[in-house]
Amino acid sequence: MASEEELNAIEEPGEGESSGIEPSTPIEEGTGEASAEEPSSLTPEEQLDQRIAAGTSSEDDRAWYVIHCYSGYENKVRYNLEQRIETMGMKDRIFDVVIPTQEEIEVREGKRRSVERHVFPGYVLVNMILSEESWYVVRNTPGVTGFVGMGNDPTPLRPEEVAQILKRMETEAPHLKVTFKSGERVRIIDGPFNDFRGHVSDIDMDRAKVTVMVNFFGRETPVELDFLQVEKA
Asked: What would the DSSP string read from start to end of the chain?
């Protein structure tokens, strides 16, 4: 047992001194980690745009990477990768797979048709948290030939690069594509000069007009026509 002298040597903590046990401090309402986040009012599409525009999230180190595939297989690669994300349980590591596209209006044989053109043929964007597991899932997807980067180290896109791609996809007017070119022989298929033949002297992409030189009363006369009024002879 302790002697009386030893017991007297154990002093009670004096005023202003700490006993080593700090009292718990209550978390004020609306502050600290205990507060719940308010649900987002954004639609899923707006949330996707927000993630793309941000490029990289500081919360979980997600970023946008570029993978390369054979040109013409972009849609197949996206489908294959989305299936692997689902079956291999990687939704918490690989979030979005995007193919940058732009609407293109093709004029062929007097008919317009809208087609979806790939802005960067042979490339697909992937929003992911880079790790050995996520790298393996993406890299070994059928059709993927590799990541864009130095060696085996994928290089993430900068936020401004991703924002520029998104802007290009959303705001640019449909691109107009014609099957004839300057100097080429064409046939007029509509209007007062129907069935006349001539050669293209000028193409105005902004106005969707073409100037054709036709032989009229023994002399070449310029005729301005809509793209839909001519076809290759």
From this structure: ---HHHHHHSPPP-TT---S-PPPPPPPTT-STTSPPPPP-S-HHHHHHHHHHH-S-TTT-EEEEEEEE-TT-HHHHHHHHHHHHHHTT-TTTEEEEE--EEEEEEEETTEEEEEEEESSTTEEEEEEE--HHHHHHHHTSTTEEEESEETTEEPPPPHHHHHHHHHHHHHSPPEEEES--TT-EEEE-SSTTTT-EEEEEEEETTTTEEEEEEEETTEEEEEEEEGGGEEE-
Domain 180-232 has CATH 2.70.70.10: no
Tell me if the pTM is above 0.90.
no
Tokens of 126: 């992937």
Residue 163, phi then psi, degrees to nearest 5: -60, -35
Token pair 């972009």: residue: 74
pLDDT in tens, 149-184: 877 789 999 989 888 887 777 655 566 777 788 889
Looking at the structure, give the CATH architecture of the domain made up of residues 44-177.
2-Layer Sandwich (3.30)
Q: List, for residues 5-53, the tens digit of each pLDDT value.
A: 544 444 444 444 443 334 333 333 333 333 344 445 665 445 555 555 5
Domain boundaries, the chain: 44-177, 180-232
